Description:
In chain A, 35% of the residues lie in helices and 27% in strands.
Amino acid sequence: MIIFDKVTKVYILKNKQRVLALKNVSFRIENKELVLLVGKSGSGKTTVLKLILGEEKPTSGRILIDNQEIPKMKDGILSKLRRKIGVVFQDYKLLSQRNVFENISFVMEMIGFSDKEIKKEVPEILEIVGLEKKMYNFPDELSQGERQKLSIARAIAHRPKILLADEPAGNLDTENTLEILRIFKRINSELETTVIIATHYRDVVNFFRSRILNLKEGELIYDGPYKKIII
Amino acid sequence: MLLGLKRGIKYGLKIFKQNLDLGFINLFVFSITLFLCTAFFFSEKVGEVLIKNLKEKADISVYFKEETPKEEIFKIKEEILKIQGVEKVEFLSKDENLERFKKRHQKDSTILEALETVGNPFFNSLSIYVKDSQNLESVLEFLKTKENLIQEEDYSEKKSTIDKIFNISKNIQKGLLFTSLFFIFVSCLIVFFTVHLTILSQKEEITIQKLVGASNFNILFPFLFQEILWAILGILIAILGFTLTLKALTPYSNFLLPETQIFDIFKNNLLELLGLNFLIALILASFSTFFAIKRYLKI
């Protein structure tokens, strides 16, 4: 379970200018939920994801994951918590010098999976995202859609409890977008992973018809079931 | 833990191979620094051996005035033998001293010819051997009471040589210490910057590692391992360079210090020198790597 309790985040820029990214945001996400974090660019979606991941600390308020308060965590405990979270980055963050298999195994190695487990599980994960035939290709040899699939595969490689995706449909055409969204749905229903997708695409929202957290200029203006919204 | 170490070594080797150009800069700096450190520790060892050798030879020869009767000298010998720590006292007559001198210089015709002209310049003497150089003080105190009978004693001269060597050795060590410290500081900076550059090329991997929950040890260890590899190569080059330098200097050292086998001192202390070098290299590599990578661990 993820709890945001009156979270405010202010970024202080290099020229000392203060930018309010989130203002007094509170919500609760239950396990196995699929939640859509919607809002225009700059509304604070990515900040929410970064706060969940512990990449940023809130200026005020509390963030709890499974009853553990993230900002107060020591580095070692934060590392362990991060192993429960998978992230699909907006820019994929793939390692260009490693092939598809290695991009995934690299993360699993870091987390402490044995070689045997890696050999067994990587092909299975690639099958979930439909990349089993591209196992030894390098990211440069993949299409945009395939790169996004690889990014998803890497995010779920260690079977996280929570999956965060930042604009997963951002660089994709309609066909690839649909395919990717179906994968997220499968991950949520079959692997019972809590999925949080940040997006500003109405089509994505309409595809999932799931709970919505709507942000506008750092404020949570809607938290409720699916409805047709104007982003 | 073992799996983590194994993988750390694997990644370390990969980074090592990927960044050979930066590594060679590291190697160069490590080699110079460790060469200087070796020189510093070695100079200390040589100083110790030189002083020890001199102290071991610090027995006293006392030459008596021409007019001192032999009976008096024998009495003094008996009294000296009673002093604690005195092992042996040997009487040598004027003629025996001359014979010994001639024997020592039998190949030097100039000296022998000079002796023919001068006659016997030697005196009756007592050679006093002590168990430990610390016992010399009481002997010297006793001899002071017999000053009127003594022509000269040679310990004071030896003592001033010991003091001189001690001072020279201390000064050389001081110089080497400061030079070594300076180079250790420079190496720290250079290793820091080269690790920093290596990290820049791996920044994306580190970010991903950190965000998926890799521990700081998992991230740090490969970089540390590759630095240790360069440091070990640096130690080998420094020791090899030092061995060759010492070999080249051996003829000169044999001339200046005929009774001190400099190369043997090196051989006898090689393991200790290697150990000290490894310790310095390890500290240097660890500190530089840690400070270079520290900011990337804060994600």
